[in-house]
Amino acid sequence: MAFIDAFRNRYQTEIDGIKAAGLFKEERYIHSPQSSDIEVEFPAGSKIKKCINICANNYLGLSSHPEVIAAAHAGLDSRGYGMSSVRFICGTQDIHRELENRLTEFLGTEDTLLFPSCMDANAGFFEACLNEQDVMIADRLVHASIVDGMRLCKAMQDTFKHSDMGHLEEKLQEHMDKRSRMIITDGVFSMDGDMAKLDEIVELAEKYDAMVFLDDSHASGFIGRTGRGTHEHCGVLGKIDVITTTLGKALGGASGGCVSGRRELVEMCRQRARPFLFSNSVAPVIVAGALKVMELITATTERRDKLEWNAKYWRGLLKDAGFDIKEGESPIVPVMLYDAKLAQDFARDLFDEGIYAVGFFFPVVAKGQARIRTQLSAAHEKHHLDVAIEAFKKVGEKHAVLGLGKKELLARAGA
Amino acid sequence: MDEITKLVRDYVIREYLEEGDDREITETTPLISGGIVDSFSMVSLKRFLEKKCNVQIPDACATPDAFDTVQGIVALVHRFQKAQPVTV
Fold this sequence. Notes:
The complex is a heterodimer of chains A (415) and B (88).
Chain A: H1 5-20, E1 29-30, E2 37-41, E3 49-53, H2 66-79, H3 87-91, H4 94-107, E4 111-115, H5 118-129, E5 134-139, H6 144-151, E6 156-160, H7 165-174, E7 180-186, H8 198-207, E8 210-215, H9 230-233, E9 242-246, E10 257-261, H10 263-272, H11 274-277, H12 284-299, H13 302-321, E11 332-338, H14 340-352, E12 355-356, E13 358-360, E14 370-375, H15 382-398, H16 406-412
Parallel strand pairs in A: 3-12, 5-6, 5-7, 7-8, 8-9
Antiparallel strand pairs in A: 1-2, 2-3, 4-10, 9-10, 11-14, 13-14
Chain B: H1 3-16, H2 42-52, H3 70-83
């Protein structure tokens, strides 16, 4: 055994440091399927508690939908459990092709390639498609997986201030000497819930011959009139060169992701993206479930409409109660507290009241921007939100944050 | 405050602080460890220095530690300005 005491001590010291900094993450064990009502064991070993879940990415409430489960069962029976192979050896089934075609049609692109996750899609795309002759210009609040993907790529990296089109234009002008420019953005930003100004981004891309990369993980299936995503919402369907998205949120919530976009870029990923080339195929059971999801969401907009109603209703409840929230239109509604310890205490107290929500603080969000991120679902009924707001009010009163604006909350946090 | 210090400080304020962010940036404010400049954005800072100060900073020296304060950045610029051969 080579795991000598010095090694163990080194890691333990690091773990102790994470704990001392208040950044230690603990898992909560859920004993039920994912939904609005869940059964949670937390802390580990404690009695199971029934909670309303208000922090899942289960936007369309399809994670435990009976038709999705039935389709997944059927897929398991007809195509087996696993492929025991990467895609290009002997891991591609007819249903992989079918799902890729359905996604292409849904997203309004030219071609699609499935990845084990959107994290993998983002990690693999840039290295496969760009090199030192190119430049990547990313919004400063893009998801961590894009940051990792950009780090793996030899192209020059640059950033623009969050949703600041003037700053983006300056950067595009600065990099006109590069062979190609790629503007990189999330569709809906996961921490603030705001949307990229995709129409303006596309306009700038056309002016400066730049490609547009969009991670629409927090939008696919429900943003836009028919749920196609942020590009539909902003009226630029067909004008985005690359869309990455996930099957792990609104589109069933299991796992898997994709790169969808210009045929040549997707082909480059098929040939060169390492997470695609060196990971097993998405399991048949997930593909079969996702195909049913695509069928459900293209048949009716009922679920995205309900989600939109829920988000609007919840935002209204929080505002009326006197919470400081981030304005927006998405089902991500951050309740701003600014102070990391307060966010943790607040989440713990909500849990005691039967509401499962999580506090987010540095390094996940900027220092002094701690919050409770609430996320709505089409699986929420009005009564869930009415119960949840009572708990929020009770905890808000306890911590004396109701009616306080950003300035007062920041002053309280000592910022 | 010398010319380069002012140049760097002004650039940091203009480039990295959002509108309405009135945090004071001094010569010793932690920029990267303080979450003001992320490691990605260091690239644009390095490019700016190279262009404005006519200096080449090797990638190996452009570390988050070296770029963590205005003071550190200015020291780096001076170091590589001096290292360059003088042309007549």
